[in-house]
Amino acid sequence: MDFWTNRINNFNKDLNNLEFKAPVNFVYNPLEYAKENYLEYLRKYGQGKKKTVFLGMNPGPWGMVQTGIPFGEIEIVKTWLKLDKSIQKPSRQHPKRPIMGLSCRRREISGKRLWHWIKSRWKEPGEFFSEHFVANYCPLAFLEKGGRNRTPNRLKKTEREQLFHICDKFLLELIEKMEPEYVFGIGKFAVKRAEKALEGKNVKISYLHHPSPANPVANRGWAKLAEKALEEVDYFRNSKN
User: Each residue of 158-182: pLDDT tens digit?
Assistant: First the structure.
């Protein structure tokens, strides 16, 4: 069993011990039903040390929930990352949020913005992943009875604390494995969790605006915001790419 398979199996065991009550009615874990695609992502692009980890919050309904890949906009996953391993279905699905995998026709705007910026700057996956990686802090997606997405920070306190303890542990393992110099939290939540989980570690934690269409600032040109955030920490001075 390789390093990543062992870590994901242990991560899933811990997550499966959690219980969530209303208003959470459905919990999706793409690290289970899309595990093979996520493991392929780790094996293909998560090897070796990295300069930077870009860290998101948790899966979106038309991105990682469908593909298993963080910010996993369908076309990017299929045609640029070239990840097409089998994607199953969770045991319970909300009728408004079915898992269609790589045949899903909906597009995640956040993922499209993030990956298209990456693609435009680094051109090829090999160039980007030689120094960078994209991850999510929490692998679970939470849906309310009507199908509305519920973000991890809005869970009940006891649920939130138990979940964050497990996610902090996995994030720390990932950072210790990749040894990045920078962690860019995509959104304030990701920054806050990175600061907590990585306290005392020799890593620079910076903020990157979330590319969500719900963020008015991002709608005025998210790629420029990303460039500015990296330039503010003199990011490209010693970068190979």
Answer: 999 999 999 999 999 999 999 999 9
Token pair 């998101």 in the structure block, residue? 56
- Alpha carbon of residue 50 to chain centroid: 16
For residue range 66-75, what is the model confidence (pLDDT) as tens digits? 999 999 999 9
What is the per-residue DSSP string for the chain?
A: --HHHHHHHHHHHHHHT----TT--EEE-HHHHTHHHHHHHHHHHS-S--SEEEEESS--TTTHHHHSSTT--HHIIIIIS---------SS--TTS---GGG-----HHHHHHHHHHHHHH-SHHHHHTTEEEEES---EEE-TTS-EE-GGGS-HHHHHHHHHHHHHHHHHHHHHH--SEEEEESHHHHHHHHHHTTTSS-EEEEE----TT-TTGGGTHHHHHHHHHHHTTGGGG---
216 vs 213: CA distance, rounded Å: 7
